[in-house]
């Protein structure tokens, strides 16, 4: 069969189909959204997978050996995570079970008259990318700390700990008198190379702060948009307007929701969390934060090598897991640090208009270009930034 190729800067799809009517209808319906390469047989697709860059998904007809193709793809280490969608003239429970048993990703009629193919493809691409990143993070982001940086960290923080020990003891006593709870707060953070460690801080919040944050999404300074009033009904805007139950539903936390609605809500969530006039902060905690005294225990993190004096701020797990794309993950290719480029760029000027994207790009800039000269510049600019004007 003659090869058709529809070029578009969108997701690349192999469509294995020998019915010209099906091909034409598919291109009419999805040609504007997908880069479609039409192939005439499963063997042709397998051969192309060996000699070219893998597509984002393969859509293959059951009648062209789709199930056998699926088995061969899953047995190959290079293609076992490749999304494969089986098509058939009609669907039945027996066929669906067979596709699931062979680890197929989905099954559609060849008319694609039910379900949202584009939404499913978007989900498959994101899922595959996430799995790949989990497998390669440690290799891709093998961060080496230069000797000059490590030497400076040990000498400077070792001296600072000795000189500041009276202040550290005094603050510890005041925290114990101010509120119930531990003196030092430990939180899991993701630093250089996506390595997880315990970050130390003087406790400035109530002991139930982690539970309170679940209900504070609307107060987040980095929020992109407020949730829809109808978001809790589990329907996307399209299904809600039609007044019908979603055909492409999924189950989450025991509830049935529209997969399109789930993806929309997930994409609208931001990675960073920061609040003005945070109600979780204790009376003493406000002072400790405004003077940055609460971060002094991180000198021990620097001394032991968890982070550096200057670098990208290590992130909580729930923030770091949102930054796994090819572009954003490289903010973890630089050393983690107590202070960094984004803090002195705007935070020290008392501004509150830094967007999430700006912060990420400054982190990436530091990871790519950090040097002794840049570190020294950041350290000198950090002191004016310590007394910040924003209550965060």
TrEMBL record:
Its domain of life? Bacteria
The transmembrane segments are: 154-175
Q: Which UniProt keywords apply?
A: Membrane, Transferase, Transmembrane, Transmembrane helix
Keyword Methyltransferase among UniProt keywords: no
Q: Which InterPro entries match?
A: Bact_transf, CheY-like_superfamily, Sig_transdc_resp-reg_receiver
One Pfam entry name: Bac_transf
Molecular function terms from GO? transferase activity
Protein family according to the UniProt entry: Belongs to the bacterial sugar transferase family.
In Swiss-Prot or TrEMBL terms, this protein is called Sugar transferase
Q: Which organism is it from?
A: Flectobacillus longus
């Amino acid at each position: 069969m003659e090869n058709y190729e529809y070029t578009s800067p969108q997701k690349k799809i192999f469509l294995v189909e020998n019915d010209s009517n099906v091909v034409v209808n598919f291109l009419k319906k999805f040609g504007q959204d997908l880069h479609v390469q039409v192939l005439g047989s499963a063997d042709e697709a397998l051969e192309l997978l060996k000699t070219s860059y893998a597509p984002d998904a393969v859509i293959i007809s059951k009648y062209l050996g789709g199930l056998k193709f699926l088995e061969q793809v899953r047995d190959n280490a290079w293609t076992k995570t490749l999304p494969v969608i089986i098509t058939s003239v009609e669907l039945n429970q027996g066929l669906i079970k067979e596709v699931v048993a062979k680890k197929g990703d989905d099954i559609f009629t060849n008319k694609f008259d039910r379900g949202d193919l584009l939404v499913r493809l978007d989900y498959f691409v994101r899922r595959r990318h996430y799995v790949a990143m989990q497998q390669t993070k440690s290799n891709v982001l093998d961060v080496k700390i230069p000797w000059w940086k490590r030497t400076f960290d040990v000498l400077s923080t070792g001296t600072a700990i000795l000189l500041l020990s009276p202040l550290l003891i005094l603050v510890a006593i005041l925290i114990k008198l101010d509120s119930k709870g531990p003196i030092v707060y430990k939180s899991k953070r993701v630093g250089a190379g996506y390595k997880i460690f315990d970050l130390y801080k003087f406790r400035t919040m109530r002991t139930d702060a982690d539970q309170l944050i679940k209900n504070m999404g609307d107060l987040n300074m980095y929020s992109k948009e407020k949730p829809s009033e109808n978001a809790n009904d589990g329907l996307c805007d399209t299904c809600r307007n039609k007044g019908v139950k979603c055909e492409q539903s999924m189950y989450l936390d025991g509830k049935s929701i529209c997969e399109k609605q789930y993806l929309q809500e997930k994409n609208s969530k931001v990675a960073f969390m920061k609040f003005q006039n945070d109600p979780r902060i204790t009376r003493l905690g406000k002072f400790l934060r405004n003077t940055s005294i609460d971060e002094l225990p991180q000198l021990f993190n620097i001394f032991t090598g968890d982070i550096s004096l200057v670098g990208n701020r290590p992130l909580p797990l729930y923030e770091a897991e949102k930054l796994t794309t090819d572009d954003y993950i490289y903010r973890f290719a630089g050393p983690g640090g107590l202070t960094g480029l984004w803090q002195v760029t705007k935070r020290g000027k008392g501004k509150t208009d830094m967007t999430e994207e700006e912060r990420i790009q400054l982190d990436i800039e530091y990871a790519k270009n950090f040097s002794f000269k840049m570190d020294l510049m950041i350290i000198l600019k950090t002191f004016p930034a310590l007394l910040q004007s924003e209550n965060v």
